[in-house]
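Before relying on records like the one below, remember that each one covers exactly one chain. Contacts with other chains, cofactors or solvent are not represented anywhere in the record.
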Amino acid sequence: MLLERRVPCPRPGPARVRLPRLPGVMLVVLSAVAVGATSCTGPVAHARSTDIRLIARIHPPAAATAVLTGSPDVLAAELARELFASAPVVVVADGSSPAAVPAAAILAERTHAPLLLTSSRAGAGAGSAVLRAEVRALRPRAVLSVGLARQVLAAQLPGINVVTGLAMLPRTSAPPPLHRVVVLVHQGSGAAVAATATARVAGARVVFVRGYDPRASSTAISALAAARPTHVLAIGAGFGPAGRLAARVTVAATGVQLPGGGQVLFPGHRLVALYGYPGTPGLGALGQQGLAASIARVRRAAAPYRALSDVPVVPTFEIIASVAQGPRDPGPDGSYSYESSVASLRPWVRRATAAGMYVVLDLQPGRASVLAQARKYAPLLRLPNVGLAVDPEWKLQPSQLPLHQIGGVSIAEVNSVIRWLARLTARYHLPQKLLVLHQFRLSMIRGERWLNTRQDDLAILIHMDGQGTPTEKRETWAAVLGAAPAGVFFGWKDFYQKDHPMLSPEQTMARTPQPVMISYQ
């Protein structure tokens, strides 16, 4: 409780208010009147010596997920509005001062007060109106000015008790915390310091995100998994629409991470893969040894790339799941494609993922529907470390035969697989899933420019499968890059037998852009 008494107007003179000591910084705010004065004609408030402490009234946000946007001062006001119904003390800092805001954040947490921002240049403009509206909504007993002369802030807040000293504030206690509320803050944003202070005062959990996607940060994923939030507020427009953020937070809160960390594949990972079919040496390097020896071999193949990569290198199996057959072997369904059973592939998938590897299931569909074959492997694709590849070279039209031509797939069929795979990934709240499209001729993906790259749950990669001399491979690489739509990533394949000579890891990484997936066949 505050007592008031009227006093004569003091002669103007500077009063020194020392703010908390920061590393290498001592802030001194000069006020034109004595510390604690509210105005030279109005009452001067004095704290009564009492043990009674005032507590802010807080509440969870109205929406389960919300993205707050605007300038730093608007963001600070919006966050206070989302978390506070009222507050006995409000701290207001000069948002244009790099030193004032951190000092004010310390004072806000010390006084259990939300932190708002303004500027000495705000005057009576829109910024001042935002501040005035939020302060009045909070109904404080006192507003502590940091970095602003008292009369400057008082002009923006007419009728509000503005002070510049802690002694003039009522005694406060921390409100009961909002344990299940998370505030996502982009590190380095202008509003980060103020938002962090206000959120902590309300007892919300602050989770810092380097970018704007919580799935891309191992620490953010761990924090969200521990918090299990019922409400999430994100500070800044970069977090995107609230619906998309809600889906990302749901995935992050599972705590499941990809090999190498995080839940977003690229550009934060580089895959180095052995390609082939288990038990069949003629179909690639993966089939030239048993399961344990294949794991050891792919680790050896990946090892040289670690010194060449600025992101984690992940050993990978690219397993041919459906195998193209010869022209005299159409199979019982006439598709010229042998579909391996899920049961036969599961040991390879389980052992590889348990060893910290990624697995890609490759489809050579023949005359079969690519989508139908992809659906067959849904039990394996529901695992977080398993992606899908489509090899259009082996996609046949009804009248075509294997080995008589280079096949191709329509963009309509590719996009149907993309939509299905994205829905599966979203349904099971999985980390971002890889879809690889093999290509060494542009005709292999008909209508490529209409490729659907808008699925947030997928990372789509076009894999250059050309073989031959280094010059021939560079030419194929340039053609593949030139035809690709925006929003895709690129991979490269090295052939042990069919390249003349096969490139070294250093030569392979000399591509521009650097491939994020390198396969060996």
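The two ends are 79 Å apart (CA to CA).
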